[in-house]
Each structure stands twice: as C-alpha cells, then as structure tokens.
Design goal:
single chain; mainly beta; six-stranded antiparallel β-barrel; 11 strands; 41% strand
Length: 205
C-alpha cells in the first residue's frame, strides 16, 4: 500500500494552487485515434467532451511552471505535479505522430478561487479547479481506441483528461464506475462533500 504521507503530499501540491494566478496553459495531446481513413491521427472528436493529454503545464504568477501528469500505483494511475515533465512540456519541437504540442487558450485563466481534490483507489483520481469563476476538471483516465474505431473510456489510467464542463464527465459511459471518490483535505481527512458532487457553486440546478 502506498505511504499515506506521500499521497498527502500530492494532495497538498494541488491544494497549494488556491489563491495563485494562472497565466496560460500548454500541453501535449494524445491522439484519440491513430489513423482515421488514412488521414493520420485524430486529436479531436465532437462527441468527446474532453481533452486527452500526455501532460499539462500551467504558467503561474511570477512565471512559475506547474506541470501535471499521472503516476502509477498498483494497477491504477493518479494525478500529480510532475516537475520533471516541465522541460518536455515547454519544448514543442519534440512532439509528432500520435502526440502534438498545443497552447490551450480555451482553458480558464486567472485567480484560482477553489481547489477540490478527490481520492479514489489510493490515488488522486480527480482535481476540480475554479479559476476566475470557471470550472476545470482534471481526471486520470484514457479514451482507448477499439477495433471498431469506437472509444472506450477508462478511469484511473495514464492520460490526463481535461473537462471545461465538469457535468460532461457524467455523460460518459465509463468502463469502470465513477464512484468511490472522496474529497479530501491536504491531511487526507474527508471534507464532508458528497463523493461525486461538485462544490455548491458548480452543481447543476
């Protein structure tokens, strides 16, 4: 079993974003499909409500980088701050084929109002940020291509899935149930928020 102090450290890293200012986002996308009708990799699909990333890099106030990737624990993957990813995420010339470097102007920037960290299966499964009043949901997962070119959505996998509308995560048919999540404080104490609920200001009415 993973040392809880190590897991608490990962939670603290995300919690420390509260009160900071995010200036911009860049990252590396994984293709959803390797080759579509001989035209090459497909990175976006109108039916897929999220980005699928190898890693994501926020530039904070004072130009501090904050790299986000995944780590593996047992058979599951979780989110963490990947400091060693930062040089690769900042170098757009090393990516091609089924990966591509992108600047994400569609992701919210500004003051980080709230940070909610959700743990499941002993990993950081999801992080919900409120940035300038706008939500951003980060999730460890994967959109795996099947033989029929359909996509199979798996939680706790090696990619970073990014939703600008957290409600869209509920619309996906996940291969494993999106349950058992507990929002925790940096010392891993339960926060009292229902496991699958967004903070009150983000709940759908």
């Amino acid at each position: 079993m993973m040392d809880e102090s190590w897991l608490a450290g990962r939670v603290r890293e995300f919690a420390a974003l509260r009160g900071r200012h995010i200036e911009s986002w860049v990252g590396v996308e994984w293709a959803l499909r390797e080759d579509v009708a001989g035209t090459g990799p497909q990175f976006r699909d109108p039916s897929v409500p999220c980005l699928q990333l190898w890693g994501l890099l926020a530039t904070l106030d004072d130009d501090e980088p904050f790299g986000i990737g995944t780590y593996e624990h047992s058979t599951d993957c979780g989110l963490w701050r990947h400091e060693w990813l930062q040089p690769k995420l900042q170098n757009q010339d090393v990516w091609d084929g089924i990966t591509r470097w992108q600047a994400f102007g569609e992701l919210p920037t500004g003051h980080v109002d709230e940070v909610a960290v959700f743990v499941g299966s002993s990993v950081v499964a999801e992080v919900l940020l409120t940035i300038g009043g706008r939500p951003l949901l980060l999730m460890a997962g994967e959109a795996s291509e099947t033989w029929g070119d359909e996509l199979r959505f798996v939680r706790l996998d090696e990619s970073v899935l990014v939703f600008t509308d957290p409600a869209e995560a509920d619309s996906i048919s996940w291969a494993s149930p999106r349950e058992g999540l507990v929002q925790v404080t940096p010392d891993l104490s339960p926060s009292g928020v229902p496991p699958t609920a967004a903070p009150p200001m983000l709940r759908r009415t």
